[in-house]
Amino acid sequence: MQLGKLLGISWIALALACPLAQAAAPARPYQLEGTEVQTIPSKILHRDYEIFVSLPPSYATSTKRYPVLFITDADYAFPLIRSVNRRVSDHGKKLEEFILVGLSYAKGDDPVHSRNRDYTPTDTTGNSSERPTGQAEPYRQFIEKEVFPFVAANYRADMSRKVFSGHSYGSLLGLHMLLTEPQMFNQYILGSPSLWYDKRVMFDMERSYAASHKDMPAQVFMLIGSFETVKPQSRNPRYNKESDMVKEMKDFEAKLKSRHYPNLSVHSEVIQDEDHLTVFPALITRGLFWSFASK
């Protein structure tokens, strides 16, 4: 007490003055600056969906319109793409600015159920009690007829320059759109496409498209990790156990090129030392430079 008296303050006052003795301030959620969450009630799907929107740094001080990148699995991919873009763009010197739109899952749905239902082109559950799959076409219509008009009406978006990106089932959805309405997007960044799905049904869809079309107006960039193949002799657990997704992607690329569509550009890349779960950051970085590299 002598020290407290000498300083003219009590030990209680000392404790209040000490930061370690004070209670921590109430925590607040982390927010991404310059982002918005919008809800779109779908009349087509009879469900509500959220979209995440990130506007470019110059948006508030300009009057220009920006190209738009639409990404599936937004809960994971949206913050990652936003961070990668800001890290590598060097204030617009390396990458052109764009509006990022994240396509999230149906509100109230389990994310796995939502993506399995909305991103797959055919129903593989039959009459079983499993949750249905195979609603990629109505989901495609939701994007085209409800998401696109919403974005066009609420943001300075250049809807003549739309880029799609997805990974795994997200790329399966992208391939469905490519083989249904290829002009829906100008460019497709497709990572680790699940071409094994439903006994390689996308190869059947490709044959059907080729039988009735003379052109496929789109630019396609497919990427995959080098471990997404099958090597039974290897003990490395990063290799796929069943599906040789690398071969399937190369086969699909070769099939598209064999059609000689006058306005189709197809390119693929195998990214070394990446597997199905680790490849996305590397592939989206390459995809951003492919679509938005400054001239």
From TrEMBL:
SUPFAM superfamilies the record matches: alpha/beta-Hydrolases (SSF53474)
Residues that span the membrane, as ranges: none
A Pfam family the protein falls into: Esterase
Region (Disordered): 112-136
Gene3D superfamilies for this protein: alpha/beta hydrolase
Polar residues composition-biased segments: 121-132
UniProt entry keywords in alphabetical sequence: Hydrolase, Signal
Signal sequence bounds: 1-23
InterPro entries named in the record: AB_hydrolase_fold, Esterase-like, Siderophore_Hydrolase_D
Highest taxon of the lineage: Bacteria
Similarity remark: Belongs to the esterase D family.
PANTHER family tied to this protein: SIDEROPHORE TRIACETYLFUSARININE C ESTERASE (PTHR40841), SIDEROPHORE-DEGRADING ESTERASE (EUROFUNG) (PTHR40841:SF2)
Name the UniProt record assigns to this protein: Esterase family protein
Organism annotation: Collimonas pratensis
